[in-house]
Amino acid sequence: MNNIESQLKDKSVKPTAMRLLVLQYFTEQSKAVSLKDLENGLSYADKSTLFRTLKTFEESKIVHSIEDGSGVTKYALCLESCNCELQDLHYHFHCTNCENTFCLTTLNIPTIELPTNFKMNQANMVIKGLCANCNE
User: How far is CA 49 from the centre of its chain?
Assistant: First the structure.
């Protein structure tokens, strides 16, 4: 069994041909991708199948979604150790020139002391600026 297939099985996701292709596509990316990026990269797949695959992956904590302020939801692979719990939340960097978004997985979002009876379900921390390529 290959690594891609075992990643799906480890998350109790049935390894269909499309899911294997989508996960392989994600492993080849260095940036977060949108549904449109995925459609362009896997042009033989229909949009609804790709969308359902993304939702399955997100529910199974294979990918996480990112709202970077561009109006387009992007997705990136979760780290193997990630359970998408509050301690797994990290910063993201959005390049205002090329519009690429990157996970900064080594920079965890700090714990925030919320008022009594407030409960955090998610946090989205996006840093905006120029990526290394655009800053040259």
Answer: 18
Question: Is 84's pLDDT higher than 70?
Answer: no
Q: Which residues, listed in sequence order, are joined to residue 126 by a DSSP beta bridge?
A: 92
3-class secondary-structure state, position 109: coil
Q: Are 86 and 47 in contact (CB under 8 A)?
A: no
Q: Does domain 3-129 have CATH number 3.30.230.10?
A: no
* Alpha-carbon distances of 83 from 35, 70, 80, rounded to whole Å: 23, 26, 8
Give the span between the Cα atoms of 22 and 90, in whole angstroms.
Answer: 23
Residue 99: CB atoms within 10 Å: 15
Which residues partner with 73 through β-bridges? 67
What SS3 class is residue 93?
Answer: strand
Coil, strand or helix: which one is 136? coil
Q: Where are the domains of the chain?
A: 3-129
21-68, pLDDT tens digit by residue?
A: 999 999 999 999 999 999 999 989 999 999 999 999 999 999 999 999
